[in-house]
Amino acid sequence: MAVYLVSSITVRDEEQRDEYEDRGLALLESFGGKAIVDSGSINFLRGDWKPRRLIIVDFEEMDDLRAMLDSDEFARLRELAAGAIYGDLVFVDGIKPATLSRGAPR
Questions:
Q1: CA–CA separation, 75 vs 77, rounded Å?
Q2: Where are the domains of the chain?
Q3: What is the structure's pLDDT at 83?
Q4: Angle at the Cα of 57 (from 90 to 84), degrees rounded to 5?
Q5: In this structure, are residues 86 and 77 in contact, taking their beta carbons and an 8 Å threshold?
Q6: pTM for the whole thing?
Q7: How would you class 71 by CB atoms within 10 Å of its CB: exposed for 0-12, middle for 13-18, buried for 19 or more?
């Protein structure tokens, strides 16, 4: 089942961010990740959450995401990220379309 890596970031350093994005995209792709959202602008409807930039990456399998998170390259990328960006990073399980209206955990 699909799993989504969700990141809400604020850029600290534009130059480091560029390197971080280049290396990060290559890493994601090498583990089967596919960026499906990279917001240029966000339309806020309600609530207090106001991410400046939102990124969502789709992985077909949890094992692929976990392998990436456990990799040496991801550890090096986190070091680069510390100077380039700050924000939040979570992952969530996808759901089967039939469970969207009923039976999805709340």
A1: 5
A2: 3-95
A3: 87
A4: 70
A5: no
A6: 0.83
A7: middle
> What distance lies between CA 15 and its chain's CA centroid?
20
User: How many residues are listed for the chain in this entry?
Assistant: 106
Instruction: Tell me the two tokens of residue 102.
Output: 């009923």
The residue to which tokens 């992985």 are assigned: 59
> 3-95 adopts what CATH topology?
Alpha-Beta Plaits (3.30.70)
H helix runs in the chain, sequence order? 14-30, 62-69, 72-84
pLDDT digits (tens, 9 = 90+) for 18-47: 999 999 999 999 999 999 999 878 899 999
Give DSSP secondary structure letters for 3-32.
EEEEEEEEES-HHHHHHHHHHHHHHHHHTT
